Batch of 2 targets.
Target 1
Amino acid sequence: MPSRTRIVCLHEGRNDSVDRTFIKVLIEALGPKWIRPEDGSNSIRPVPGGNRSDLMKRLPVELRACASQGADTTLMVWADCDDDMSDGDALMKAFWEVARDQGIARGDFDTVVFVFAKDRLENWIQFLETGATDEGKEGPRVKHLNKRLWRRGHWLLDASRKHLALCRLRSSGHAGTGGSWLPA
Amino acid sequence: MLKLIRDLATGDAVLGGDGERDIKGLELTTWLPDKVQEFELDLSANGKWFKYRLHIEQVPGDLKPRITFESATCQGAELYTRDLDGVRFRKRSGEQKGFPLDWRQAALGSIEPRGISPDVVTLQQAISKLMIIRPSPRDMEPESRAEAARPDLFLSNLTSWYRRFANDLEWANQFPRSLQRVWPDLHSFRLDDVGINAKALRLRFAAKGTWDGFLYFDQLSDGEKALVGLYMITTALDRGDAQTILVDEPDNFVGLPELQPWVLSLMELLDESRQAILISHHPEILETAGRSNGQYIWRDDHSSPARLGPLIVPEGLSAGEAITRGWVRA
């Protein structure tokens, strides 16, 4: 029987976007103890939030809902910096301003785990798939609902696993200083 | 469980029997070591409150289950009581009477109406008007051999049940009209002779388009068959043939555009004397029925007891989303 959702991953896109598969596979593979996961089919719940400004408006609702479930429920927000935000700090500030206007306290806002792609998740995935990406332009968009569903499903998993491997290499110091091959 | 109580209380079934409707054995509660299951049913009818209690014992091995205790009260006053020694009740004249009874039979289904309190009859009728359905279109019979007084659990005898009402003109008019809300091209129903005592249900469609003709019930899709069944249930509720209906997963097989109209048409009928209990996970039903009407049943794991609580939905989430996340119980 399904367990309670412990991690809500609010992300850009719609139900058929690539993000939700990538996010779920990646978090399951990482198995982060710091966000108190729990075994079960439904402990990670990706929630598509539309475009980035929709995501900002949705955050306060999801944060309150998570808070109502107790301290062992975490809200993660996955978004792209795109080319209009200089870095993650600027994007987080934009999220905070919308949340503050909707009555969210700073202390509650700070419980949100943000994951930002520079510039876009599509580029991130393209890099993991091919080893190269041009962040000056958006990487190829991927949908689940197309003729290449099966193949794309597989390379998504591969991309998630590659990312996991890179994270582990970096944390163990074997990936050097990061360098040009590892996205910031 | 409700079906078991109804079938025993109406005398349709006995414990341990081999008949089609009999209850061959009980499923004991996995998390309880007790061999006696105790059931209590509170219900109102004709403006009075009734409590019906039934204790059934089942031990492992070849012994058949038996009723060890049974009682009924009306407005707190005892109507009758039974134990392993027999049934005891008071006649209208005030005289105390009793009779021995087979442990496999429920007393409520065995007491003859003559001379007893009319409240016993009211209770008998109220329980007989419990309709418990788990629609399974793939089990629905293509033709009927005889009339059926009430639908069975899977609605497999739908045509036989329809056959019972076919000669009631008012019923035969009302039923297609209710279904026309979702099938505007439906014209009428008809029973065709297809053999000795065998009848098949035929639906006439009169569309604005080119085709105007008949389809046998068996030619309908699973969803369409289920929908016919659901509207028969609401018609039965509307006409007083049922007082309480319990439908397990009415959304199975039914298309989304047809589901909400059915739930709304059902809700139109509900009042102090007509009740509906729907068991569903479907977001459309949860939202349409209204979360304030909802109760949530859950088990923490496979060896835990089933629990019942109010449907608590965090602000900003739909009931369906909250259930998906397991967040409906605080």
Target 2
Amino acid sequence: MVNYFFLITLLPLIGFLVNGIFGYKIKNEKVAGIIGSGTILGSFIIALIAFFQLLGMPAEQRTITVTLFQWITAGSFNISAAYLIDPLSVVMSLIITGVGFLIHVYSIGYMHGDRGFARFFAFLNLFIFAMLNLVLGDNFLLMFLGWEGVGLCSYLLIGFWYEKKFTGDAANKAFWVNRIGDLGFMIAMFYILVNFGSLNFGAVFGAAGSSIAPGSTLITVITILLFVGATGKSAQIPLFIWLPDAMAGPTPVSALIHAATMVTAGVYMVARCSILFALAPFTMDLILAIGALTAFFAATIAVTQNDIKKILAYSTVSQLGFMFMALGAGAFSTGIFHVTTHAFFKALMFLGAGSVIHSMHEEQDVMNMGGLKNKMKVTFLTFLMGGIAISGIPPFSGFFSKDEILTNVYLSGNYLFFGLGVLTAFMTAFYIFRLIGLTFYGNPRYDEHKTHPHESPKVMTIPLIILAVLSVIGGFIGLPHIVGPNLIDHFLEPVFASARTILPVHHIEAGTEIMLIVISVFVAVVGIFLAYRAYAKAYKPEVSRNPVYNFVQNKYKVDEFYNAVIVTPLRMLSNLLYKFFDLIVIDGIVNGSGKFFTSLSGDWRKMQTGVIQDYAVISVAGIIAIIIFVLLVVK
Amino acid sequence: MGINYFLILALLLFSIGVAGVLLRRNAIIVFMCIELMLNSVNLVFVSFSSYLGNSIGQIFVFFIMTVAAAEAAVGLAIIIALFRNKETINIDEINILKW
Amino acid sequence: MLTQQILDGLSKFYPETILSVTILVIVFVELFFKKKTRVSGWIAMAGLAAAMLFTFLQVNIPAQTIFFQMVAVDPFSYFFKVLLILSGFLIVLFTFLSDEIRSSEFKTQEYYALLIALTLGGFLMASSVNLLMMYLALELSSLSSYVLAGYFKKSNRSSEAALKYVIYGGVSSGLMLFGISLIYGICGSLDMFAISAYLSANPVNLITLLIAIFLMLAGFGYKISAVPFHFWTPDVYEGSPMPVTALLSVSSKAAGFAMLIRFFLVAFQNAGHPTITTEGLHQYITLPGLHWPEVIAVIAVATMTLGNVVAIWQDNLKRLLAYSSIAQAGYMLLAFVVVSPQGISAMLTYLAVYLFMNLGAFFAAILISNKYKTENIEEMKGIGYRSPLLCVSMAVFMLSLSGIPMTAGFIGKFYIFSALINNGYIWLAIIGLMNSVVSLYYYIKILKNMFLIRPQGDTGAVSFGAGYSVLLLALAIPTIVLGIFFGPLTKFAEYSVQIFGLK
């Protein structure tokens, strides 16, 4: 059988090269857009084929390794560039290419008229390429390359409108915060290489499963370092500060990178290394705690924000917290399930927000919107679907995944975090419907003479409709036990089988399950009701004087805290070092050696007099010198 | 007669050739000096050939003569081209390409 | 018997035969197509393609010598044949696309015949196992390059370059011949295997042998432009037409390295140690008291240091590339310090990546001079904004030449330095690394002018035809790809280390 699965990643690369190299020649936007989205569609189709091929195989044999070439061979250490196609990577690839394709199509409309049109599509394709390498790579090194690649693309795309100073700052912030996380990942990789002698997933996981004692220091350190990497990429406490600022980029970028795909890389990585994490109970508890706290904190911030994209950004951070709660509770497949449903509804809401922003002429403050539901019917209805989904109202997709997470946390016995989770679920419903109320209901609070909101073109609304449909029905792949079969859990089972043998098994009674469902539906309904009461009417914005509210609205002053505690002392230190060490010592050496070589160069080139006989004299003298030297030595 | 006399003669010729290349200013004479170097090598080959009693050295001499002729042809053609451009074949003055 | 051997030899000599026929055909065709300059170019390409095809057919021939131990057919020569044909092919394309050549009033077609002759000379240099054959091959390639360097008859610079080249080449080959004659006198043979056998069986006068070796080194050093035999390089490179410069910097240098490696490894493998018969040689145990690796190391360090340092001051792009190519030869010589298979394969790897990055840099220089009519770096300010594709490719070549990771040049340097470190020459690796830092200075200077300084005056975009872009990418993409996906190349290089006659 010819293995053509490498095309999954190759096609986006081709798209990137074509748009990147010939972009400035492609005057027609449609061509660039079609190349950009067509390549992703192709990848999606091949990923689908891979998916069905896996389905056709017996459950425990569902892995295909596609070796491209021997990459690095140095003695016994060798790494091949190979792709691992198994249920986990296929699910991720389907999300990345499927949602990615819809966002590409949407971008054709959204970026219409931008002078960097082809460049934008080139970067998006490069991002998809890197992201696919991240999830498909069969060793840590390839994963890390993808990891760095998506970081780079994220940086390029946040700063896409580089004329604005703010975007550049946001890009830098994202870059540096991610760098801290990457450092953790890199050190972890080094530890793995030293201790297991390989970076190949199969080899490392096999060795870990058979030779590492659960809870040993080594595995705890490795997993904590890996998790530090994940907190950077997936915006968890304490490294979540970059994600809200990253909203400075174009909205499709926020939807694709900062909601649906890249930020879930940390979740994927933990799930991929499930066996390592399963062996480190301490790290698992840490992940659960960090996830629950992040979910809660971000949700409280989201309640007080007024920028439509910022609300969604904090919501994303909060939902990522939910995913990590699932991982921390040992429910890896549930985490991936939430990744899937979240990709649907969060991409939908970001794109919907983009559509609103587009028609409001770049207005992002929900306080200056209102009453849009009649003017933008499709956007409103699809956004509403997304809102219901994220709030967790059955049978919308978000309900199933969120309920499953809460159930698992409950079963793991951490009732405190379970309580936090329920509280967060309540706030989620509240802030999303606050957003919907302020944006689509009530009275218009913008200048109706200047701004005329209108529905977006079809190329933008059709992706919205498709995503809305997915947000509604996407949850049926993971039904609760009492209702029906959990397809996604079953499909992913072989990947997590070895981790599951280590983790404790929980059994759930039907009564408990029904109780949990009732709780989570109840809090969602209450949240929606309260938000509706407060915001879905003629609303007059007022400045709050409540200090607690202001504190939360200022994002708990985390940025300021980091500034005061870390950035400022570091800057002082580096300033000191700069003045003392850099300016005097390093610059002295650098400038000195620069001057030295320049003057040396000026002297030596004088040998090249231009007269051939001088050359011959030096050469003959050279030979004679060598011969004399040799004669002296030989004797 | 021992082979050393021939070798010393050849060495002298070779040195004269090298010195000529290094010192003379006329490009044609420089070429002649290169020919002198090659011919001294021919002398070495021939004398070794007769000393060792094998013919390989003499065969080499024929090839060197041929190549030397070709080299002289190319060299003289280049000198003519240069003379047309610069009206000089004085090597000291041919130095626009330097540093 | 005699005819049988000759016929047998000929059957393994197809690539060379094809090139010889191509030369004759071009000379003949020129009589009929005086006006159509491209005809002979196409013939040259066809000849090169056919030679490539027949070279590929040789891949599985067992290593052997043909024509009474004159020429070897082995993986080592195979490697260089592929390299030389590739380079020749690209140079023909460069010539097609160079305005400098197109607008020249001399549309003589010998150009292509000479180009093929140079390639043929390179073939024979890489495969000759007899000093007579080696000398003839060297002269064939040199004589063609003299004429090519002076191709612009009416240009002062071109003819001056040719004259300097021919005088310098003449002296060098004279010195080398003197060395050969001494070796003949010592060993009584010109056959490398016989020389090796004689030296390992009989005591010889060491001093004479050493003088002979170093005289010969002058010939090799001139071909690969190693210090102190490098002086012709900057002048000739600057004065010659740009495609010819590119050809000299790659083909002629690669062939010089092939000759150097084969001669020293085969002829001197047992020299001076009549009592020791070492198996699996591949290391210098040559002459007692003479620390051969140190001599080569000193030459290599001097070569790259001089090349890099003097390049800093240059503002003519061609001349800068000339010094850069001297420095590059220094890096390759470093690999020759370690003559284990690891060292040689590192050198071959470097040569292969050097082909792409250096030809790429020259092609970018050709395009710049086509469109902007300048070779001066100071006049290239801001052209990165006017021709992005060209300048980004140039950036790739420059970064690769300086050895930045993720480029082919890094892989080349990586293998050379790791060979050095593996064999205990850490200080050499450090000097090499420091040199590549120095080299960054002038490579970056070009990029700084292209990208960081806004264009003055005319700022319109300048683009090229599709053919130019395709060729540019055909050089830039391997330069990147070989930096990531280099397995096959290093495998090929390791395979090509088999030199006939080495145990």
